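Regression test case RT-17, inverse folding.

Input:
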């Protein structure tokens, strides 16, 4: 294991040198971060009149913590999520460590430049976790620690375990996903986690609740975390030891957040007025006041733990000896050292030209030297810092971009059976993959938010077992109580069972799907969820895709085919999510031979550098299975003719998913009156659409529709929102009637519901006739 950078406090000179270098680093990082934002807003040409933005106050509150983290505590095997609004500090630190280019800083928030919020895919420096949507960057670190444990117990972790670290804004704790993750983490016994809260007690709109820290203590304590509070810096601690010090400490402890913020903004004179009034007869406090001029008093009263380098370094070192998850509550000041320090409106505040000039002069930076890494330091300090940075930059070495080779995808046989649902087919294919074994199957890992059995992963789990760091026996099995399900937990298990929270599912899929870039070993995650509840974790799904995590999402059951479950469980808009979500390719197969082809494609696609994640929309509706040889290439391209249209056909029914029997029946009836008719099976509206917008006129759907008459009537059918397929009318300008579900469902059986929502064979037939009539 790499030695933690724990300082030998017995060598006082060494310690003092390190603190001096870290403080110089902090000073440089604050300047560069604020200058980067200033440059983007006030120096760089602006072509569109938009405010460019950036968060100087949020940077200032986190700069001491981030400097201590990157300059001192970080080990090469650690991974970090930086709160979104501190991106400029992160970029500045990477610049100072020689990892970030000046051009990227000059183009902060411009195309090709450093991103507004750290981005794994768009930034050119190594970003371990993207952030932006607050709360998600926090949660993902917890699931990354779980993935790290999984890799370790499966013999796949080459290095010693690192810490998964999040530097987070205090308002991020308002996001429910953080608490969903905490509870799951407790169940999974996670470790090697650091959450460092930049406790500036301000959010976007204002000042946060006074007693929040108490709640933080109890929440984190409840789930077994260590909580380390960094409230006061060394200056204050030293004054607290003097006569009157205890009273002063009590005064600060009792000071409401909004008053403390306002006084911080007002400066030393404001603090003095307030303290003189409250301590008119306390000689000790008055002596303390007398021994500080206004500037010194302001420095003293704002000397919080999260800005005291020595305090932070000691806390990080102490925590570095334990693998228990640790939450640091680091008191900070939003906008510290900047003119709007403490002001409740400072979140998006920018220093104006005059303020920036003053700040630059205070920093001793000559005009023209704004981008110089070590400007404003005296020569000796600059040299010492350069040496120091050279020593600490190994912890932020660039990621090895090259992915390992593709694991070959074994043949995925079509499950046998006359009548099968796609969900059942999925479960059987997973069992076969487990039984066959091999390099790809070894890397498959599944997860589900308490719907493992009801999404048909039970058989797979019986084969591979549940993952847990410590083995647990299956009591039902030991007591010989009959159950179809083995529920044996062990470090070798390959299914990670989650509680119901869908946010956690997607954050875990994000972390599993980043196993290779984060930890050097590829995993092929498969997550199952009920289709309607994708929406519950949608932002986390988007977040996973935004980071280019690779996974297979199996959403089942779906649509009205959840019939007796009623409208609360029937998904309507999920296919539109599949169509619209970047980084995620949706398939909705009707038959299990299509599914087998699609799953093989998915396992390949998930591994390709230019690939992505895959979403399968499946159903529990059993369908009669065709006996045929399928052309796999057309299935993965998005569709094929089940009934070839004759040349110049005047009608085509286009169907996707579980509603195919209705389409087949309608085509049979229509065929009695119209000889020239086709039935198109769409396996992926998403693939067809993507191909069409990339190459209109030459795409797979263009070729598929080419045999039809120019004005042939199209009827599209989906058990989901009709807009998924309605665009097909634009491919060749054909009249179209899209059928689907655009309102809430209700309980029923499939015949009743398909009739009520206009998806049964009669409705399809009538729609075809109407559309034909319309064109005449
Ligand atoms: C999910 C989400 N909702 C809203 C926002 C808009 N927003 C950005 S920052 C912020 C407040 C952040 O406050 P805090 O986390 O305390 O950060 P700091 O004070 O350190 O800037 C909000 C509401 C967002 N980025 N993400
Ligand atoms: Mg805050």
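Golden output:
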């Amino acid at each position: 294991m790499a030695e933690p950078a724990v300082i030998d406090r017995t060598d006082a000179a060494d310690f003092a040198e390190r603190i001096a270098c870290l403080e110089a680093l902090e000073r440089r990082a604050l300047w560069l971060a604020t200058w980067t934002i200033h440059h983007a807003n006030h120096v760089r040409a602006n072509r569109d009149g938009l405010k460019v933005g950036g968060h100087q106050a949020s940077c200032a509150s986190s700069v001491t913590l981030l400097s201590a983290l990157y300059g001192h505590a970080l080990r090469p095997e650690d991974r970090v999520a930086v709160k979104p609004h501190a991106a400029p500090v992160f970029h500045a630190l990477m610049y100072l460590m020689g990892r970030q280019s000046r051009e990227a800083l000059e183009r902060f928030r411009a195309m090709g430049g450093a991103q507004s919020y750290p981005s794994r895919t768009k930034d050119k420096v190594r970003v371990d976790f993207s952030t932006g949507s607050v709360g998600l960057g926090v949660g993902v670190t917890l699931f990354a620690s779980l993935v790290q444990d999984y890799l370790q117990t499966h013999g796949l972790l080459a290095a010693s375990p690192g810490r998964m670290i999040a530097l987070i804004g205090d308002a991020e704790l308002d996001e429910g996903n953080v608490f969903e993750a905490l509870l799951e983490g407790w169940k999974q016994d996670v470790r090697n986690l650091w959450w460092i809260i930049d406790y500036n007690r301000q959010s976007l709109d204002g000042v946060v609740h006074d007693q929040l820290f108490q709640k933080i203590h109890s929440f984190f304590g409840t789930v077994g975390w260590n909580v380390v509070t960094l409230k006061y810096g060394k200056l204050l601690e030293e004054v607290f030891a003097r006569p009157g010090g205890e009273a002063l400490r009590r005064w600060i402890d009792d000071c409401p957040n909004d008053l403390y913020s306002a006084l911080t903004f007002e400066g030393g004179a404001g603090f003095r007025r307030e303290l003189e009034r409250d301590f008119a007869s306390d000689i000790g406090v008055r002596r303390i006041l007398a021994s500080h001029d206004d500037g010194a008093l302001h420095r003293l009263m704002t000397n919080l733990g999260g800005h005291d380098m020595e305090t932070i370094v000691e806390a990080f070192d102490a925590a570095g000896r334990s693998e228990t998850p640790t939450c640091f509550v680091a008191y900070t000041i939003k906008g510290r050292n900047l003119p709007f320090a403490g002001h409740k409106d400072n979140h998006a505040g920018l220093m104006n030209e005059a303020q920036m000039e003053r700040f630059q002069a205070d920093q001793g930076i000559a005009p023209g030297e704004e981008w110089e890494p070590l400007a404003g330091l005296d020569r000796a300090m600059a040299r010492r810092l350069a040496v120091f940075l050279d020593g600490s930059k190994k912890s932020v070495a660039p990621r090895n971009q090259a992915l390992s080779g593709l694991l070959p995808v074994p043949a995925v046989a079509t499950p046998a059976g006359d009548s099968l649902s796609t969900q059942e087919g999925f479960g059987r294919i997973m069992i076969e993959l487990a039984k066959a074994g091999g390099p790809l199957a070894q890397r498959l890992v599944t997860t589900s938010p308490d719907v493992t059995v009801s999404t048909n992963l039970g058989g797979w789990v019986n084969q591979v077992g549940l993952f847990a760091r410590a083995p647990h026996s299956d009591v039902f099995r030991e007591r010989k109580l009959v159950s179809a399900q083995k529920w044996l937990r062990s470090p070798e298990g390959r299914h990670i069972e989650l509680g119901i929270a869908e946010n956690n599912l997607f954050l875990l899929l994000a972390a599993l799907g980043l196993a290779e870039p984060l930890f050097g070993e590829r995993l092929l995650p498969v997550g199952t969820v009920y289709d309607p509840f994708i929406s519950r974790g949608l932002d986390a799904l988007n977040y996973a895709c935004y980071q280019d995590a690779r996974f297979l999402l199996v959403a089942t059951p779906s649509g009205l085919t959840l019939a007796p479950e009623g409208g609360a469980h029937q998904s309507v808009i999920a296919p539109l999510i599949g169509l619209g979500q970047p980084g995620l390719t949706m398939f909705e197969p009707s038959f299990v031979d299509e599914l087998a082809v699609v799953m093989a494609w998915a396992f390949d696609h998930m591994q390709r550098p230019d690939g992505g994640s895959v979403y399968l929309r499946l159903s529990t509706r059993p369908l009669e299975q065709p006996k045929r040889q399928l052309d796999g290439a057309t299935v993965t391209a998005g569709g094929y003719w089940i009934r070839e249209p004759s040349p110049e056909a005047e009608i085509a029914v286009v169907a996707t998913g579980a509603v195919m029997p209705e389409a087949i029946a309608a085509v049979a009836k229509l065929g009695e009156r119209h000889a020239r008719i086709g039935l198109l099976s769409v396996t992926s509206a998403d693939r067809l659409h993507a191909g069409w917008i990339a190459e209109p006129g030459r795409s797979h759907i263009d070729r598929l529709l080419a045999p039809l008459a120019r004005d042939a009537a199209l009827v599209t059918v989906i058990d989901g929102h009709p807009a998924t397929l309605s665009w097909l009318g634009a491919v060749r300008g054909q009249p179209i009637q899209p059928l689907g579900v655009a309102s809430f469902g209700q309980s029923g059986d499939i015949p009743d519901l398909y009739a009520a929502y206009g998806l049964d064979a009669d409705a399809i037939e009538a729609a075809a006739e109407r559309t034909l009539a319309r064109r005449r």
